[in-house]
Amino acid sequence: MPSTRGIVRIDGTCFVLAGIYLTRFVRSPAGREAGILVEPATAHRLVAAAVFLGAKFGGHPPRRWTAVFEDSSEGAIRAGEMPGLEDCFLRAIGFRLFVDSDGFDGFCKVLERGPRAPSGVCACKKRQADAAAGEEDERRRVRARLPLPAVLSN
């Protein structure tokens, strides 16, 4: 959001809180119940709602955010949509906005470490399911047996 930095001062704390809130959203089944789907067409709305809440509850209450949402999203997010997005997002995370210092520091360490390389042990469910299906197919496959080699004696 580099274009928004010139309009509204956004502290790094807001982005860390936004990341924590997004993590809570992704891990919560309530997001689906609230009717919010994470897909390319809606991801920018989720990030905007998370940054908005991070700024609001991170000690930097937003002012003049109308221009921020409309300019940063090229008109995709209208300021009038934010109360509804905020409400849906809050319901999805169960209104769990409090972040203790250990949780904040832990999330900062995760961000500093960067993304982990994928490992075979921690594979995604689809790859695990594909591997299990492959093993099952392998067990079901009928193998032709060759006759034993004939031994000729002199």
TrEMBL record:
Keywords, sorted A to Z: Cell cycle, Cell division
Species per Swiss-Prot/TrEMBL record: Panicum miliaceum
Domain of life, per lineage: Eukaryota
UniProt GO BP: cell division
Signal peptide: none
Protein name listed in UniProt: Cyclin-P3-1-like
Keyword presence, Cell cycle: yes
GO MF terms, alphabetically ordered: protein kinase binding
